[in-house]
Amino acid sequence: MPLIPYEPFRRLEHMKRELDHFFSNDFPSLTFRDEFKPIFQTPRADVYETEKEVVARCDLPGIENKEDVRIEVDTHSLTISGKISRTREVKEEKFMTQERHEGSFHRTIPLPASVSSEGVKATYKNGVLEVRMPKTGDEQKRKIDIEFH
Length: 149
Prior knowledge:
Elements: H1 10-24, E1 45-49, E2 53-59, E3 69-73, E4 77-84, E5 103-110, E6 121-125, E7 128-134
Domain SHSP: 35-149
Family: Belongs to the small heat shock protein (HSP20) family.
Organism: Melghiribacillus thermohalophilus
């Protein structure tokens, strides 16, 4: 028989004291200013392949000029980088929250097949960048014979 009777809420008292202590101090502001903005943003992408090409579709909302995006294609990777700038209609000190990304972005995506840098086509529509890269015929799958001893 235990000497101390079981009290199911004893552990919760400790948590309550910690939370009271946390909220009684000067609570940090939850608004994000320039010092908290991400410097590096990676765009989300879908990559798939067809018989003749590899296709990458990337979400890049807010691009206003084609000079703001740079695309580089290697045999096994696609690199997309650039800058998103927003025009300020409201003075910065009036913002309560600012969640839309502004600044540089960079992403290197490994590709599922070898591609040629010639014949690459890129289109940007409704905030989505689509890059179509033709496959090279260099890497064809072949069956490997196994030697059994």
